[in-house]
Structure formats: C-alpha cells, structure tokens
Structure prediction request, 756 residues.
Amino acid sequence: MSQPIPTVGLQLRSLLKASGELELSLAKVDVPAPGPDEVVVRIEGAPINPSDLGLLLGPADISTAKVGGTAERPVLTASVPPQYLKAMTARLDDSLPVGNEGAGVVVAAGAEAQALLGQTVAILGGATYAQYRTVKAADCLRLPEGTTAAEGASCFVNPLTALGMVETMRREGHTALVHTAAASNLGQMLNKVCLADGVALVNIVRSSEQAAILREIGAAYIVDSTSPNFTEDLTAALVATGATLAFDAIGGGRLVGQILTAMEVAANRTAKSFSRYGSTVHKQAYIYGGLDTAPTTLNRGFGMSWGVGGWLLTPFLMKIGPEAAQKLRERVAAELKTTFASHYSYEVSLAEALNPEIIAAYNRRATGEKYLINPSKH
Amino acid sequence: MSQPIPTVGLQLRSLLKASGELELSLAKVDVPAPGPDEVVVRIEGAPINPSDLGLLLGPADISTAKVGGTAERPVLTASVPPQYLKAMTARLDDSLPVGNEGAGVVVAAGAEAQALLGQTVAILGGATYAQYRTVKAADCLRLPEGTTAAEGASCFVNPLTALGMVETMRREGHTALVHTAAASNLGQMLNKVCLADGVALVNIVRSSEQAAILREIGAAYIVDSTSPNFTEDLTAALVATGATLAFDAIGGGRLVGQILTAMEVAANRTAKSFSRYGSTVHKQAYIYGGLDTAPTTLNRGFGMSWGVGGWLLTPFLMKIGPEAAQKLRERVAAELKTTFASHYSYEVSLAEALNPEIIAAYNRRATGEKYLINPSKH
Prediction:
C-alpha cells in the first residue's frame, strides 16, 4: 500500500459525570485495522446537526464553561443543573463518542473492500467527530464523482428526515404537511422534496427574513408565527391544503397546540354536521426536535381525534424496512447537489468545536448558520 | 294493543346560541311511530356520564345560570365566555338532544319486533334524556330477567370503555396499564376487569379516600398524586408492572407528562445501554376525559419514543369492527350485576336535571357521586 494505515487518531468525547459536570475532550484512540469487509475513512466533514447537540452538550449550562488542556487538545468543562441529571442516569460517567454522520476519504481497506480505496464516501452511525473511523464497506455511500466530503457530509440525517416526513404522511393517510422552523436547512430540503412530489406544505417561520428565504425557493404557503394574523393565516393555509399532519422542530410552548386547533377549525369549516367530540378528522403532530426546551402546552381545543408524539429517523427507517429505506437513500445520492444540497456557514477543527464561544454560536441553532467539523483541519 | 302508543314526549335540548348563550330546555317532540323493525322505549334511566357533559353544558359558565319557563318545563340560560365560542362553530344555533345511553321498557313495537314488547332494554346512540325514544330493535340490548332499568342504564359507555382500554393495551403491544381518576365508577370497573383478566393496573388517585375505595375492591397498585412520594411511588409501580400505556381522564396539568417521565425512568432503570434519544420503549398516554380543562403541559423529559392522543369509545369500536365489538357487548351483558354494576347517588327528573344547583353538583364530577336521570319521574 502506498500510505501507512493510521493506527491512532483524535476522537471527540462527551462525558457527563454523576457529580454534575460535563467534560468535552479529544481522546487519542486506536484506529482499528480494517477487517476484510471494512474500510478506514479519514473524516473531512461532519455536520453539527441539532440531533447531535443533545448527546454532545447534554443539559449542560454552557455559560459556565471553562477550558483546560492544551491548544491542540483542549478539555472543556461545564456544570449541569442538578434537576436534569436524573433523566441522564443511563449515560452518567460513560465517555461517549459523538457525531451522527460525515464524509471523507477511504485511506485503508480490507481485502474485499479494495474498490473503495481513495474514494470519497459518506457514513452514518456515530463517532464521526473523529479523525478516523473504521466502518463496514457496506455502510459507506460512495459519493458521485466530483463530490467533496463537505458536499457529502450531510447526506443522511437531513435528507432522510425530509423524505421520512413525506413518507410518514403517505403511510398514515394524510395528503399535505405542516412544518415548523421551516426555513432551516432541513426545512428548505423539505420544500424542494414537496415541490418535486406535488405535496402541499405549510411552512411556519418566526420572522420575515425566514419567510423571504422560503419565498425565494418557491414555497407556496408561508405563515409567520410572530404576525398578529398568525391564527387566521394558518387556518386559511390549512383549509387550502387540507394538511392534517405537522412536523415540529421546536417542541416547547403553545405552537403544537395552536397548529392542532387551527386544523380542527379548518376541518369544522368544511364539516357537514356537528360532531359532539369535535371533528372526526385525525389531526397529528410529531415533535422531532427541541429548539425550545420549555414544556409543550396543549390547550386541547381540538376535539378528541388527535395525537402528538416523538418522531425520530432511525426508528422510522427500521419500521419501513431495509428495502424502503434503501430507496430513500438512492434518491438522496441521485439528488445530492440539487434537492439535498447543504450549505455551511463555518468549518471548524475538532479543537475549535470545543471553544466555548463557538459552542455558544452553534448551540443557538440559528437559521442559516450551519457548522461543519473538519477533523482533518488543524 | 293493550296501551296507546305515545305520540308526544319531553326531550332535553341543549342550544348554544351564536350570541354566546347556552339554553337548556325540555322540548315537546313527536315520538315517531315504530317501523316494522323498530320499538318505542319509555326511558326510565339515563346516566349523566362525564362524556355527556360536553354536549349538555358546552363551555357555559354555570355560575351565571338563570331559570325561566314553568316548574314542569323549566328553561335554563347561562352565558358562554366568548373565547370558547370559536371552537363551537359547528353546533351554534342548533338545538341538540342529549344523553348517550339509557334503559327502559318497550311500550310499542313494530310487527317484526313484537318479542321485545314489555321487555326492559338498554340503548346507546343519543337523545336518551327524553321520555321516549324510537330505535331499531337490533340496537336494543335486552337485559337479563330481573334487571331494572336503573341497573341497565349504564351498560354501554363505562363498561365498553373499560374493556376498550384493555383491548387497546393488547392491540398496541403493551402488557399493563395506568389509569388516572382511578376511583371513578369507570375506574372501579377497570379494576374488576383487570383483576379478572390478570392485567396489572396502576391506579392514580387524588386522595386517601379514593385510595381506600380501590383497596377495598382488591386493587394492587394505588398511587396518590397528592402524596410527597408520588414520583417515587409511581416509578416503583411502573417498574413492578412494566406498564407503558396510560389512560387519563383528567387531561389538564402536568400529570400526563409526569406519567410519561416516570415510565421513561422505569424503562431506563432496566435498560442495558445508553440510548442518546432516551429509552427506545414506546410510552403512550391517551386522554379520554377532561376533568381538568386547563392545558396539558408536557415537559418532554421522556425521550423521543412517546405519544399522547385523544381516545374515544365510538371510533375505537369502529376500528376493531362489529364482530370484536359484539364480543365486548356480550361480556357486558353477562357480567352486568357483577363486574359492570353501576351505583347512583341521585336519581333526578328531567326538570331537576335543569336545576342550577343540581347541575353544579353533577358538573363537579365528584368521585362516588353519580347521577341518573329518570325521565319517567315527575
């Protein structure tokens, strides 16, 4: 082989101590030599998705962060408010690798996986905030010729989530969708998918700037929750689209209840007779994120035919089975530079990812500000 | 025929006016002559279930009630806070009959239904707060010899709801149950069903008096939500039973979220490894009542595998299909004087049911205080 197989690399670790302290560090870990059907990927891009932040930061209060260690291998500590520790019992004192997905170059390959050597691939499955990752060749998605690691770094979580929402809609008998925090990277993808598939999508945003982002990419229904006409606008959009399924990234506050109430009003507006328990149309909202960690408040002014629940990509993919999941993955690969293109505002090294100011910035989860960790950057 | 077929009778009506006023009255309505396959039932007992109160009183403020009309045919009016009117659009200015179920004596029968003449039967399907009701013979449940109308008046809603909860548990893959407001008539029935079927049931009550009621009928798991040890007691009961499904009659406040959180803690206590999005065990709560009309507040400290939704008997029966529903009904008839026995604290006439003090009493939905309307009482 032309280059030595790396045997050691840095890996970002999140450790929540029973004492109530979060510790982020860069551990020197062995890189397992690839088995016959495995490859070693030098990771060059791994996005910080909202779905990574829970594991990375836990319920720590980042304003209390202190940095020790060295410039190359900093150690960040922050305190965790005691009331949140109980729910974390299962991970206490367990040093955990982080990073759902990423992409990079195959720098070593087992006998059966030689075809991938030197190729740029995307991977899913954890521990991607690391310099190297040994994975099964079958778990790699070979990126189309001319695709960079940065372009392919986000080809699982957001694209499959957007496709999963539309697929959930079809499988549960709904015909249109509502999405909150709709101007996010994911939200923009969802708009492109819905436009391509002819699915009506009601986008709920929280500012006129966010509305403008969506208008530019062709979104037909955009409702601003900060507008005094929010309820009327939302109801009108629901009447127009017939949407009875919402995906919510915010979680906290009254928004989910407001959406269900507006769905109920929309359903009753077209109902032929009074139903004593409200409309018989089933109204569903799935909470898949927690941008607002405050409690969810439901006023229950929406009859008895409703559901609210958690929604997560991995259980969804398991539920639909490997064949259906593979179909979704193939679509992502085919449309990686169009429908599923991601844009990053900042590329940071592993050490920079542990900088308190940078953490505070990506932890804001601001629309249009997406971070990519490049573990090969120094 | 030995007695004349009644042609006119009193029927309780609930009218919600667009002006924001609720009007309850006793309308003189024609009693339709029975068709060949129909019977006329003289109703002698119709329970006031929590599920009747929504249609009967709507969101009216009963403390504003005024009574007009005559002693025999009073008319009650009360005002409705304007913010609740929007959700009521579909019923505004529509005078509606009330009463889900009841029982009485067949006083007239069509040619094909003569076998029922003189029999005591139970009926489901609305408008039972009335002196007479013409229904299909096939929709009558003939009560066993020696059963009074009062004994048979509640043989649909509560018994089928209790059976429906256990059936839902089995169909959705859970193995034990949690129930709130657990000392209610329905809650006591559910305990009897669960004891008979060997299903573990965690009863959540709000006082030591309610706990005593359940202890007396053999309930094994009783948790008092007013106790300082509520969380620990509930978690221990969930660990012991493995219950991951709750039916909640209260709706408002933090209780549903507390139950889901305790289920999550119980699931993690037995989990083998940390799952970043919380336990993968699906935790479900169905809200089937609204004893507390305040908003439902969910703190979402229970991972991502959860659902909360409305649960209603009629859609449930439609979902399981006529054969499965018939099986449940047959069990009710067979166990009407044992498992499914109901007890009433007060029997009132139609006119008394419109008395503001009596309304205030049954609208409190106090445990152990159940009202039966006897439309044949003067």
